[in-house]
Amino acid sequence: MTGLPPRVVPSAPLLALQQAGVAFGGQPALRDVSLQIHRGDRIALVGANGSGKTTLLRLLNGLLPPSSGQRQLPPGGRPPVTAMLFQRPFLLHFSVRRNLQLALWLAGVPAAERAARVDGALQRVGLQAKAAQPARSLSGGQQQRLALARAWAVQPDILFLDEPTASLDPSARREVEQLIDDFGQAGMALVMSTHNLGQAKRLANRMLYLDAGRLLADLPVDDFFHRTDLPPAAAQFLKGELPWT
Amino acid sequence: MHAFSESFSLALVLITQADAALWQIVALSLRVSATACALGAGAGLLLGAWLAVARFPGHAVVVGLLNTLLALPSVVVGLIVYLLLSRTGPLGSWGILFTPTAMVIAQSILVVPLIAALARQLVADALREGGDELAAMGAGPLLSAVLLLAHARLAVLTVLLTAFGRAVAEVGAVMIVGGNIAGVTRVMTTAIALETSKGDLPLALGLGLVLLGVVAVVNLAVGLIQRRGAAAVPVAAGAAA
User: Fold this and answer.
1) Which of A116, A144, B51, B132 is the most buried if burial means most Cβ atoms within 10 Å?
2) Assigned domain for B56 exists
3) Residue B12 belongs to a domain with what CATH number?
């Protein structure tokens, strides 16, 4: 990171990147990114299209290996349980309930626990009445709620969200935002990419700003929006985006 | 024209009166092709799923070869299986040449590339849509591929019906390895060829009508499946060799 000093945080991180970089075919997509994710973090990841937000989320979640630097898990302890929500959730051509059961099976949850977890997750997102329906017959907002239920069911330590409301109408967006907020209140660390700075303000307590694959700012949310010494690229980004929030 | 209409009438009589010889041939055809497709499905779906996720040197060559084998001539398959199973061949001790088992083996080999190539494409397309999400949930590459086959099961069924259409309509392989022995290895396509050469046009035409009916039913099934919104591959049922 350049420009601003890193935040000072007390607890041991759930996950950390140490000067991590990712390159595709020799072209760098992320460069020298260092950051830590702690329990209670609600991180909004902002930046222009192509700045590396999705790549950073995939790197953090272990879907991509770093081309340079390191992705560090807590030494000695268990690795954090993670889940990821995508802009357009991929639901299998099964029922709502079967999709949840499958996620739990893949997460290694014992069979005896699955039914209760499925019911709890469906109740959490208000889809109990849809349990037997084909998942792909749900509306866009309901599908995203099902994807959140799938994440909730595995009880992750960190939930990664890649523009989770970008393709939703305002009503569905409010519902999904409320659920994300609930998940944060329940203790999950959230790392969310978004183009919506208003949403970032509502949901996040920490802002990361990426520009051309570099992490230029890592600040508490109030500081990000009110400091006058932001790196020029971040300040320009804010000027360009704020009128639409 | 008179001979055609007369033969056509006699053919309809054979069909409607449930001629025993005719239906025995039909039953053997369906049994051989269905068994071959079941065996070919096991191998072809797994091969296709694996090729969709595997990355190794020469992968593109293997995929290219597989796609080339989509046009594998059935007579070539018949010839290879014949050489393997003939008394002097490496598998001659099995003693299964000129049996329905040999015909099943030949048709299985014929449909495996078709099933594998189409399954590979199905899985590759689905992986682009949901591969990251399955990986994020903890599914390894091969498990993801198998899950995506289950996810696209209606399209997979379309693939299998397409393979069945190819198998039941081919003549070259079953003629060579089956020998067209009456009551033992005679199937619809080989019987049509034989009866036509003998001049027994009504039986040949009757079998031809039944074969057309089978292929039509297969295509109808494929159409119904596609109508359910699961079509993902081109339909080629009835592509005889």
Assistant:
1) A144
2) yes
3) 1.10.3720.10
The yes-or-no verdict on residue B231 having pLDDT over 50 is: no
Total domain count, chain B: 1
Residue of B nearest to A86 (CA): B133
A92, A144, A161: best mutation site toward chain B, by most B Cβ within 10 Å?
A: A92
Residue B239 lies in a domain: no
**Residue in this structure with the two tokens 């949930």, named with its chain if needed:** B137
Q: Identify the residue whose tokens are 């053919």.
A: B11
CB A71 within 8 A of CB A60: yes
Would you say the C-alpha torsion B11, B17, B20, B26 has a positive or negative sign?
A: positive
Q: Is residue B190 part of a domain?
A: yes
Picking from A90, A108, A154, the nearest residue to B133 by CB comes out as A90
- Residue B175 lies inside a defined structural domain of this protein: yes
Give pTM, 2 decimals: 0.83
Q: What is the ipTM of this complex?
A: 0.85
B-chain CB neighbours of A135 within 8 Å are none
Tell me the pLDDT tens digit for each residue of A164-211. Answer: 999 889 999 999 999 999 999 999 999 999 999 999 999 999 999 999
Do residues B168 and B30 lie in contact, with contact meaning Cβ atoms separated by under 8 Å?
A: yes
Put simply, the answer to whether A63 touches B136 (Cβ < 8 Å) is yes
